[in-house]
Design a protein that fits this description.
The structure is a homotetramer. Chain A is α+β, with helices and mostly antiparallel strands. Chain A is about 15% helix and about 35% strand. Chain A has a single domain, classed as Sandwich (Jelly Rolls). In chain A, the strands form four sheets. A nine-stranded mixed sheet of chain A has the order 1-4-17-6-15-18-19-21-20. In chain A, strands 3-5-16-11-14-13 form a six-stranded mixed sheet, with no helix packed on it. In chain A, strands 7-8-9-10 form a four-stranded antiparallel sheet, with no helix packed on it. Chains A, B, C, D: It holds the Pfam family FmdA_AmdA.
Chain lengths: ~350, ~350, ~350, ~350
């Protein structure tokens, strides 16, 4: 753990990407590199107050800017990118949330098409206090206010899709993308299957915190200063992104309807468990059925995302990816001590 | 907290019910009564070992027996039954789980109809150790074995449905029923809207523990010795069952597809939050979006069920139902001290 | 074809049923009996003009009255009721349609729960001209008016459900019920699996015509004078109602999401085709894939319904149910000639 | 109708595209140009007999080749491409259909992820007789054989997507793509919203015929010789492709779950009807509810597609797009007379 290679990636406004796929890398790094990067919020920083209605100040398709792509040397189709989140810190002392016309889970949308006029478009501004670890919600139509725990995360993390596709950054899928799970926080390692040479990792859509499902369509959106370790595992590409923290193995599924997102995530958790414990598939199905958790990630995006979680206690001494998460935790620790 | 009225309800085999609605009460109680009851497992106790395949030893529609109905004096249409779970204890030192032909989330079913032959029907037997607080999973096709925390709960709790309907006990809906959420554990108060005079509460389908989503279709199924307090709140019937424990307010939605179960639960949590905090509806929508949790309950039954959770810390000093949960917690404490 | 047994069934207002299941028969008939019956519209006849808003003049659960049940002598669990529609004629020279708060495919509903206020509730009155075979649509907010072909049918036809259930008449399912398919017109034979002794057939919800999907939630609702032949086939109960006319075999599926309704109907059409043509299941799957039609029935009710259709030309000389439809067509012809 | 501009487009094997978007045009044409083009079948012509299992002879992502893109001079974002199908003729005297592992409506898929092993992969070869207008199905596991009407169509027709996306040709969406509706036959005009300069039209996936829903996942796949007229309407871009033939206006919706595909198509048909007849939106909703048809297109692709149809008789003398369909019909007639 001697020499850490550290790269900085702070895109200018015109360097942000709005898709996964179809872009040349902003930077190419060796496996194991620490990347210090900045991300803008999902509004491109254009919503700064109550009067900045997103539909007025944001222009389609320039929504949800992502930082990247980061190409990883040696990453080939079928490999696995391991992305460990070392630190995610809000870049400003405020965050934004809003409703948006025909977007969200409790409104008619362009897909769940109905005859209703849009709900009111409204902006909320949150005070972020990193020191105290809180963000403050203030009601717009009354005096109510309450502090919520700060829990910074990235809604959008992914790689270039398979099949030569280029997808808008707002879409989650097998390549990751806009999964919007609060599990994508510091201390977590995310694993992505490589679909094109270099993998082409991009990150954006920081949230100071987010409820499960992101029901109104937006979280406490915030520009971030984020540190990751980007690593490479040869082979082993998962069908959909996997996550790991100190307590849980996690799989994801992004699809519609929501039960298919659930099925994808559970199917992969069954496979992963069977593989790690050398279990027959039905035995793994049974174990996951009793030991697993299944929180919603998002129920508002172009695909919905579910997460499946298995406590690592269930695994005994078995370690996923030969303990890569523990290794990256150690790298992160070394970096943080040196910083 | 002086005199607790305690009623015992231990049905004989032929007294079990298999529906919500359409039944005369087994017992009628006054609001505030403690009921000590026994429930049989979802297999009617007929699966005792590996060779007792459920499809062979269980006969449709005699599945998922429930104990009840319990009529509550004074309960009228539009009122709310509050059911507090004081204690849920496995009645035997073993529990059963199984696959079942064309049932579960990762198999073709009669509804998600396909051309696949059924998955193998297989039974797992768990050792339950109440003292140690664990249950032991043993793989069937290898030597793997692991202890999981015991976390007893009831999969099926509900009242007679509206509209003159009689529904099989395996169906969850606005009346409750087979919601299969692990949140229905001791320490929780569940609230049900009353659709017929007396409410007609029934309880069954004990689980020694259950993963979120109940992906294979069954949990660690166990007969239970359960103690509840049955209470009545005049008016205030929720659209779908609500739950409360010391840390969370919870709402439920049971429907298909799964996003509609999510929508129902989130919509009701928004309404509940708006009402308790005197918030404008969009302000409550925003608050729930950032502060809420959204675990799956079941993704295998005739309707799927999602749970929406709001930390009670978000409410400040506001109490749901004028603090009924706290009151019932105290009653439960008194009962447990006296027992 | 000598003596036709004809029974008349004209319920009084208080004899209408609002459920399938849980009712004693209004009449018991022998297989082969012709039943002349009257049905009220889905509003119970309470909406007679623009100002009779359904939510004001109709009272839950007294919606969608059905005529019946009709018990069939000798019908046992696992048998098949064959119901041939001889004639369906509007009882009045007007029909009604309306929007209804939170009901329909292009509106938030109690299940697809959202934050939108209901769409406007509006009533349309159609002139029905049986002689000319047309009904006239008149716009409410402009002078536009157009004649549409009269195509009378019953939205709700079914038997008592399995599992001891009692279901509201507005719910479609394996027992039939409120499938709302325009295929349920005169000249069609419908086949229902018998779940309780006598089968317990009920019919209601006449439509002067209906678009596929019934997108606004109601058709041109009309009281009807209807003539059916009720027949019995021993055994052969289909998993979901089947229909047959001179040109098509049809299967139905009622479920949510809509793809599951499609799957159920297609799965059963594959099975039926394989059985009639003695085909391997995949060969039947292939044939249905190329020869079948798949119109929506309803996408607004508590379950959605899809229809799968196979041209009988595909069958060569094979006849379903040993030519029962042709036989009932002949009985109908004899009746109509004698009338 | 004097001088018809006719362009020929017969791509070589390496000129086929496998995506919508991200490609330079093969040809640029003026509005009104007739294009004679050839398309390969969805298997790239690699499946020629029973032993050519698609999973063995086809390589992802080189599936479903499309011919194009065709750029249209003057086509700008927000315009509408009108594509009239003059003739669609099978290029060979045989067509292919097959099952494919984990693809189709009655099988577990990668999205509706389950634990089932794939269904058997099987190939069927159809004889196509253009003269007689029939194709012959032959069962693989028995001697059964039957002639079905030839009804040539294109499963995949679309333009470059919005938002800078590049999508695999197997995906249907607002840009069209792999909608797989049998309505895309000769005599039909399809309307697509232009998302990038030139529109970038591509066509492929010819079917000698197809059942509604394409339940097994493939139709009678055939290389085609196809003639279209490509025309341009300034402005008026529909939200999702629209179709028109002599009898019907049609809208499409491509999404999951299937009810959302239905909603999109119905919503657009309501809008279109309101616009053409100058109706209030709810009046149009009502009219479509009673007069519309709603057949499935595909229930097997990455998005499902529904079609909504309104008889043009309902419109009186109103014509969509100022009679462009009639005009293109006349152009087609002139071409066919001259050919």
């Amino acid at each position: 753990m001697t020499l850490l290679e550290v790269v900085s990636l702070r895109p200018t406004y015109h360097q942000y990407a709005y898709t996964f796929g179809g872009r040349r890398p902003l930077v190419t790094v060796r496996p194991g590199t620490i990347v210090e990067l900045s991300t803008e919020d999902c509004f491109g920083g254009n919503v700064k107050g109550f009067d900045d209605l997103p539909s007025a100040v944001c222009e389609f398709p320039y929504l949800n800017p992502v930082t990247g792509p980061i190409a990883v040397e040696g990453a080939e189709v079928g490999d696995t990118l391991a992305v460990h989140f070392v630190d995610i810190s809000p870049a400003r002392d405020w965050g934004i949330s809003s409703t948006f016309p025909h977007f969200g889970a409790l409104t008619a949308t362009h897909t769940t098409a109905m005859l209703h006029a849009p709900l009111e478009e409204r902006v909320w501004v949150y005070d972020l206090d990193v020191e105290a670890g809180v963000c403050r919600f203030r009601a717009r139509k009354s005096d109510f206010s309450v502090e919520l725990p700060l829990d910074p995360m990235h809604g959008t993390v992914g790689v270039a899709p398979a099949g030569g596709e280029t997808l808008m950054s707002i879409t989650p899928g097998p390549h990751g993308g806009n999964m919007d799970t609060p599990e994508m926080r510091a201390g977590t390692t995310a694993y992505f299957g490589v679909n094109v040479a270099g993998g082409m990792l991009s990150i954006g859509d920081g949230h100071a915190r987010q409820g499960e499902g992101e029901v109104c369509g937006t979280a406490v959106e915030a520009a971030m200063r984020t540190v990751i370790v980007v690593d490479l595992i040869k082979g082993g590409a998962p069908v959909s992104p996997r996550l790991e923290n100190d307590a849980y193995l996690m799989t994801t599924g992004s699809a519609r309807p929501l039960e298919d997102a659930y099925r994808i995530s559970q199917r992969d958790l069954v496979d992963w468990t069977a593989s790690l414990l050398d279990l027959d598939l039905l035995d793994a199905y049974q174990l996951v059925s009793q030991a697993g958790l299944a929180p919603a990630a998002n129920v508002c995006d172009t695909n919905y995302t579910m997460v499946a979680k298995l406590p690592k206690a269930t695994l005994g001494r078995q370690r996923a990816y030969e303990g890569r998460h523990d290794h990256l935790r150690a790298v992160a620790g070394a970096y943080l001590r040196e910083r």
